[in-house]
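Sample A.
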Amino acid sequence: PFQRRGTLIQPIGAPLTDYHGLLAAPGREIDLAEVVRQVGARRFRFSGLVAGADHIQGALRPSMIADLSRGYEAYVAGRPAGFMKDKRRRARRMAEALGPLSFTFGADEGGILDFILDLKRQQMRRTGQHDVFASPWTIPFLRHLAGQSSHDFGLRFAVLRAGSQVVAAEVGLRSGDAYHLWFPVYNVDFARFSPGALMTLEALRAGSEAGIAVFDFGPGEEHYKREFADPRALVAEGLVTADSLLAAIKVTADSTLAAVPLAHRALAQAGLRLDRRWDRIAACQPTLEGQALAVSESVVALGRRHPKASAGLGLGLGMGLGLLGLAMD
């Protein structure tokens, strides 16, 4: 399943989808480049390709999983003692400063989805990321999911309060006995209490009581994920190119830079960050006009975050790469 952006195809639901894969008979050997050609595209970008990821050229990342199959207490026993001690201390201090702590885990109540979206959009603006919720389809999609009522599928909202105020919240997606954390937020005024971590621990407890056996934190080993979860199956992030010219350009660039490993590594990492930024823009903005405007805003945000960079070279290169990527697609 895919969505088309010109001659680029992406996993359906990008950039809100963390996992994706090809629907095919078990054991079938598939040439993804040929699949891309057959659907009339030139490139296929993915960030969490499962099933057969070890056969794909690209960066491999582990899925970070919290195993609750033996219950919450068994899960806690497997985490570092110092981590749990620290969180209990922070919970006591927050209760003393702000009032008794309370937690809910279930359907949207009192506009919690709007609260999460507002804080998440503030965070994206603060960190210079493209605002995925400024697109014409992402918020309606989440509201549609929030309206689904099923005991084992749909959005769940984890909300931690101190006294009468919400200090952290998160919306995730349940499917059977698995739960995927999606959009966590917390009130930055109370960061010293680690409200996001306390909220996540309570969500793990409540989820276990509700029959959830797997808490999925998504691909990538960011520090906050390692505190709660352990690496499991690998997924792939990369690009499949069905255009011979583009493929030849990539091979030539890789061959040229191979003689300078440090430069090659640095450019590859920078290119991956740019790819992620442009892919998010392309996914959220179906029209060329919307994409061009988003690229311009993204370049301005990059300039604010990196003021020491050359305005002419750094921003010009960023704009050039962004518009080139859009034009290629």
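Sample B, a different protein:
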Amino acid sequence: MCGFRDLLNAKEIPAGTVVLGASADTVELNQKFADKNEYPFALLSDHELKLIRALGIQIPGRPMAQRVTFLVGKDGKIAKIYGKVSPRGHAEQVAKDVKELAAKK
């Protein structure tokens, strides 16, 4: 998430792009984490795992989500899913894909 923060702050992600994070942590823990890392976007709390289960990204047997990124187009449809995300270089790849998606009409 820090990579997304840095790219947003550097204006490397197109204007109008919405970035959201989500985790199974409580609202309070997410807020502390967001404040500590100075995130310019919201972290959603899915403490009841409703979204995580609906997306099929719950870690089996654990109350937490896999690291997955969903790129959603302006039409509200998922344009790309990045599974088994590794933080190194991920935000840059997503930013590149966001730019390509934005260029398509």
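Observation for Sample B: The radius of gyration is 14 Å.
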